[in-house]
């Protein structure tokens, strides 16, 4: 009945694990209580649970990402603490808890923080920048979100019932095989990746079709905002890279479940195959995350410099080049696996080639500021912080691409420092900059600048203190994922790194305070114009928050940055004649499928096959049932449209 | 922000150059050709990259400050979005940097190919390494002995390590002496080194292979050629290295004993085997890859080919 | 779903792009072509899944270990029969589309049933083959090679099964809804899917069965 789920699966084996479980359950219950106490269930149901509106789906993605950011950061803090404490003793994490923590940290930050953050920002912004009313497939969009949410739920519940994987976020066999890892941890990891990978692929398809078919009239490809270009390239990467991950984890799951020999060491299996497939996805993955972040920086720099982006077409070409080359470099994650010198050298050089378009982008951001009027809005802080810190990560990345240097730094703390140097200033700073930049568009009031700047300094200083010592520790030969530090010489730098983590903690607290202060003071910070930053692209030409249909009349575009051009010419935007406004009908089906996805994978993890079949049938039934719906749009009358427009302009500032 | 980082960088450099011994900064104190090449490359690339990124960082902050809106500069030009000169430089600088580094990569990758024996005339001394959960087994086929968690090798002579693993995928790494390379079950990889002077150096499994992998460490003792010959002879009689004595001396390492050895264990003390089964390494690989044939060393690189 | 009906050159252009466009309005044509594009993009992603599985199989052909070889296990005759059934079913699917577009519901339904019978025949043959392989000790646990074989051919078979479900749903929609525009639009995508599986099968026949038997 319950498969291999027993009472022993509950986390009573360790105080810390139990504490984590208690906090997870407690926060969940608290949220339910708050929703009930303030009678928000109806509001939640109407506006979020059943919505197909890309803006609300985007907001939900970002909420998920911010929650998981906190969860993943707590893991990071525990790792820093454990390594520091273990330099003089054994540390405080027992058994394989440290290994669970670093596996969860990596998995969460990549799949359930960075990817949803990206999906959320793109969801919110993309149709607005294109001058569209929604994405191409609103239902599919909601489905992607709810499947992502289901896999997030799977990762969270692993904290309460059972354990998480100890195989690291990459899960290399044979360690992740059934012989060495018979528990549920690796299965949680496999299913979370499988479901969220499927969801992300659907998101990529949706974005591609949206960009190809939903651009405003006159918006040729070479008039699209840079952000849209980066999303297009990122989506193509999703399309090409994610299947490799899907296959890799599926086959690993088959190895574990049916004792096949895909990745086993014996009976003709090939464990190097997993490594290849994983990184065929894994390397493009970082580019599909960083490209939209580059897009955000491009928008922010142009807006706050009061200029068009420098070298638009070069930026576009650089983005496309990165897209192509990103898929031809995966082998650099395992130069030490013993491929021939020629193979290694070719992949090393192709890796470096990415440095050329990326370098070009940095120069173009620089020269966008040149002869501009730079306003130091908080988004601009994140952008400048990114440019300064990211080039250091880029430099160490090029060093890693030199094969013999990689032989000496691979698998050490140096590598950990390098990829955090790309992903924290590169990806996370970009998404946070985007969050602060587009927040007023989403909610109708601006975020508090002072606390935003404090958060920036917390993150920037914290990042520097936390990861520069790791570069040195790597050169001292500290292998990554070391649970017990064996060399007391490492202690001083580990203390510095821990202090850095505390600074980042301050940065996160400052983000929370910023949100609280901004909501409290929203009356003073209302954005009544819809254009708080003197913006350049179409999303700023509509009220904040935008009405459900975004554009009452579809704008006509005749150049890059059409809104800025219209303002400069002192004229108005050109619009198409008013036509019918059709919006997708809200539906609970995506959420049902997402919840079923969660139940299905939970059942598979615990070998509850009856439940697995039940959930699969619900999903199948929902999809088939949905296929009978012919017309899923309703038309708004002109009066409703006018009312919504008045509401948007007059009542800007609601938290809804 | 800038000050803090600069202060930190200066601090880190001081820390690494003055406060650090050979043991705590092994990569910066390399031994032998392989280690020295690694350091050489690290320094060259750091300098080249610094030449590019320091001006970029400075330029970014300078331009942002100089063109701040509160400065009220009059040369504001919203249409300045293209300049042949700037575009040329911004393409040319990354391109030339990458071209230089790419050329270096090609040359050094081939020069330091792990399958390429070092030294042209001398036949390298062969040592076989087996990565076990969580200990290292070293077999010296010529001397007919084996050690656990202690690697002893001669200086002044090229050494080739044949590497395999059972059952995890791990990675052998002696910073500053050999280049890191994976150890995989059913497969053989190689590492080469040529140490000029006798010394001691820490080695490890650098790749996570389960809780406890950090205990899979060993000390490498490089001995002068005469001392090494004496050690090899002594080891066959159960005499271990002075100052790093074996805690346990066993008679013979054969498959039967190996089956006991392969069971997972942590913090295994240094153990010596007075004699070995000559085909043991091959048999260990064959546990996973029955058709495996051991190659003779000089043609090893050709045999392994592209992996 | 209303809007200006297509006329003249616009209609011709739309029909050239997709024969089903002529039936509808500008708005419904837009919806249909968007969904078709999305489905094409999805098929590209699915292609990569199969590409990875093909590559995986290619690598694992070196992993026969001590398991049986494909030479003793594969039957080219049965693979040829499977190929014939699947290719024929693509042809009959073309007949479904043709009849449906010309508004002949009963004939469309008939061809749909014929196609499903052919598809079921394919699946039956494949399952028989799998059962025999299991019985002869060439199951997916036999060696890396057989794992790779079952992953590739099994994934294709799973796709065919999904295609059968899709066709069953189409059949019900023919009866319940008639040959309405949304139904035809769905039929178009199911067709894409079905023809795509043909292509993949040709790859499997040429890269798995032929070399396996000839080796």
Summarize this structure briefly.
Chain B has helices spanning 2-17, 32-66, 84-111, 225-236, 255-261, 280-286, 300-304, and strands spanning 125-132, 135-140, 145-148, 150-154, 159-165, 170-174, 178-183, 189-193, 199-205, 217-223, 248-253, 271-276. Helices cover 36% and strands 23% of the residues of chain B. Chain C has helices at 8-17, 26-60, 70-73, 76-101, 105-135, 144-177, 181-214.
Describe the model.
- Chain A has 20 helices and four strands.
- The radius of gyration of chain A is 24 Å and the shape is globular.
- The longest helix of chain A has 35 residues.
- Chain A has 656 residues and is mostly helical.
- In chain A, the strands form two sheets. In chain A, strands 1-2 form a two-stranded antiparallel ribbon.
- Chain B has 307 residues and is α+β, with helices and mostly antiparallel strands.
- Helix content of chain B is 36%, strand content 23%.
- Chain B is built from seven helices and twelve strands.
- In chain B, a hairpin with a 4-residue loop joins strand 2 and strand 3.
- Chain B is elongated, with a radius of gyration of 25 Å.
- The two termini of chain B are 47 Å apart.
- The relative contact order of chain B is 0.13.
- By secondary structure, chain C is mainly α.
- In chain C, 36% of the residues are buried.
- The chains are: A mainly alpha (656), B alpha+beta (307), C mainly alpha (215).
- The interface between A and B is large, with 107 and 105 residues.
